[in-house]
Each structure stands twice: as structure tokens, then as C-alpha cells.
Amino acid sequence: MNLSLEEIQSVLAEKVDNSAVIASIIKDLEKIILEKKEDKDDNKEPKRKNAFAIVVVDSGSGLDFGTGFVVKYKQDGDDNAILAKLSEAARAFNETSRGAKAPLTSMIEVFGHLKPKFLKAINAELSIQTKEAVRVLISNNKLV
Predict the structure, then answer these.
(1) Cα dihedral 17, 19, 21, 22 in deg (nearest 10)
(2) Is pLDDT larger for residue 102 or for residue 65?
(3) Is position 127 within any domain?
(4) By Cβ atoms counted within 10 A, which residue in 6, 50, 59, 132 is the most buried?
(5) How many domains does the chain have?
(6) HSE (CB half, 13 Å, CA atoms) of 67?
């Protein structure tokens, strides 16, 4: 519950007759508020930015190198560990009763069926952005 300085000042005005004492109390409270705000700003960590990666799956199941899946991860995270984290989350899913009935055995199944809670459970700091494969287009950096 937060009280504004005006509310505190009005209560003090009702209870205390000396306006100099009220002004002194309000001034001290303003200093405390300013100090807390500065401490909060000092302790604040900068927000980490996100980056995106396209995972191209070569499975021989009809997908070619022109398709892939989009994954979002923390920009300063290890992008080489994305596949390992996805595999670890799939193992966590396969240990559940539902995973025992229908285990995830390929990356395509991971992208199509893995729930975000399994990525959060292993603290992977990444999320699957596309459940279905998307087309990957390669450009020669020239306008057509």
C-alpha cells in the first residue's frame, strides 16, 4: 500500500498544530523517497535483449534445406547450446506420463509438440516461435 505525500500531509495537518513540524516531516519523507528511488535505479539490471535463430532440420522426411524453425533466445546466451537445450527439454517431456505414451524422438516433433513449460523447467531461456516449418530464403544482397 502506497500513500502519497499529500495524503500524509493532510493527516498530519489534522493531528499536528505546528506547520513547521509538518513541513520538516514532509521534507524528510521526500529525501527518503528520493534515496529509495536512486537505490532502485542503481540495483536495476539492464534488460537482456532477445535474438532469433533459424534451426534447419535435415531429416530426409520431405523437408529440405529451404525450411526451418524459428527460436527466440537471450542475445548474450550461447546460441551453440540451443539444440542441446531443446534435446534436454524433450527428455524432460519424455519422462512424463504423456511423454512415455508418445515420446518426442526427432527435432521436428520437438518443434511441433513441445510445450513451453518444459523449456522453462530446465531454465533454457529460449522459446519456440514456429510450430511448423517456415521457408528460408537466401538472397545475394542485390535488389531485383
Answers:
(1) 100
(2) 102
(3) yes
(4) 50
(5) 2
(6) 15
